[in-house]
């Protein structure tokens, strides 16, 4: 293999690009996605094409040396992004199989197989990079927690969107809307914190320590998530006599996904809060 795809690492990245692209192309040829779960899968495949392409181009042009001032640990960034891609495409593969694959859906089965191969390749690539023990924020426990919190929040918001799309448009309780806003705000701040940790120069713009900001945010995030779970449960599960879904068995799948995801994220934010107290 010649060019930028040299060695085992280069071959793995090439396979990641090829099979992620095949998954996306097949599903695009299938028709426009309307379901939020389908949109999430499409976003993941595009993300998993973009990340290895950008990393390959930057390393081939040696631009990561020039970016050392802004991104002091390139190995940590590539390892973190590859691991994130592995988790995201695993979720997309499982979700696509659960929601769209059936015995008579040949195109969907083909898309699932391509995505499954891409998932295996990303997992292998992520494991190989982890063996090098890169040091940095994304490779640390705190960075892993933040990335997981953001990922779960994306799943929560997708499930909430699917719940409203499949249900009656007229049923939009204020409590459930407030829950979605709380999840979205926490996701936005979590992403901002990750970016601030990666781009050290941006921390100079803050008038206070980043550790203090994280401590305050973790407290607020735990409270917001607790309030959101309560509101979501009160206004959502009380509709036991009304099923807005075509599929009787699927009536509360999205509801349960949001609730369980939020409870899991509460645990992660509480762990992050304890670590914030220790670091301050």
Task: Put the structure in a nutshell.
The protein has helices spanning 7-30, 36-60, 63-66, 74-99, 106-130, 141-166, 174-198, 210-237, 253-279. The chain is mainly alpha-helical.
Secondary structure tally, helices: 9
Number of strands: 0
Main beta sheet:
none
Straight-line distance between termini: 49 Å
Task: Provide the β-strand percentage band.
Answer: under 5%
Structural class: mainly alpha
Q: Average pLDDT, to the nearest integer?
A: 87
Order of helices and strands: HHHHHHHHH
What's the helical proportion of residues? over 70%
Low-confidence stretches: none
Shape: flat
Radius of gyration: 20 Å
What does this structure look like?
Helix content is 75%, strand content 0%. By secondary structure, it is mainly α. Helix 6 (141-166) runs antiparallel to helix 7. The longest helix has 28 residues, at 210-237. The relative contact order is 0.10.
Keywords:
mainly alpha; 280 residues
Describe the secondary-structure layout.
Layout: H1 7-30, H2 36-60, H3 63-66, H4 74-99, H5 106-130, H6 141-166, H7 174-198, H8 210-237, H9 253-279
Helix pairs in contact: 1-2, 1-5, 2-4, 4-5, 6-7, 6-9, 7-8, 8-9
């Amino acid at each position: 293999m010649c060019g930028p795809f040299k060695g085992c690492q280069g071959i793995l990245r090439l396979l990641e690009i090829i099979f992620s692209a095949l998954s996306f192309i097949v599903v695009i040829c299938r028709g426009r996605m309307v379901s939020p779960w389908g949109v999430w899968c499409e976003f993941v495949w595009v993300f998993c094409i973009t990340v290895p392409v950008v990393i390959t181009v930057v390393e081939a042009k040696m631009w990561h040396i020039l970016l050392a001032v802004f991104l002091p640990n390139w190995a940590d960034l590539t390892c973190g992004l590859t691991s994130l891609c592995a988790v995201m495409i695993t979720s997309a593969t499982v979700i696509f199989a659960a929601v769209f694959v059936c015995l008579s859906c040949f195109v969907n089965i083909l898309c699932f197989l391509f995505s499954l191969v891409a998932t295996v390749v990303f997992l292998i690539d992520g494991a190989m990079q982890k063996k090098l023990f890169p040091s940095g924020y994304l490779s640390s426990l705190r960075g892993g927690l933040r990335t997981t919190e953001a990922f779960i929040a994306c799943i929560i918001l997708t499930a909430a969107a699917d719940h409203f799309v499949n249900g009656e448009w007229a049923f939009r309780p204020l409590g459930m809307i407030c829950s979605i806003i709380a999840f979205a705000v926490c996701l936005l701040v979590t992403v901002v914190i990750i970016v601030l940790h990666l781009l050290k120069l941006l921390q100079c713009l803050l008038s206070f320590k980043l550790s203090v900001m994280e401590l305050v945010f973790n407290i607020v995030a735990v409270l917001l998530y607790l309030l959101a779970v309560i509101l979501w449960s009160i206004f959502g599960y009380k509709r036991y006599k009304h099923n807005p879904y075509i599929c009787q068995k699927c009536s509360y799948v999205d509801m349960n996904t949001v609730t369980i995801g939020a409870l899991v994220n509460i645990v992660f934010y509480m762990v992050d809060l304890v670590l914030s107290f220790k670091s301050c």
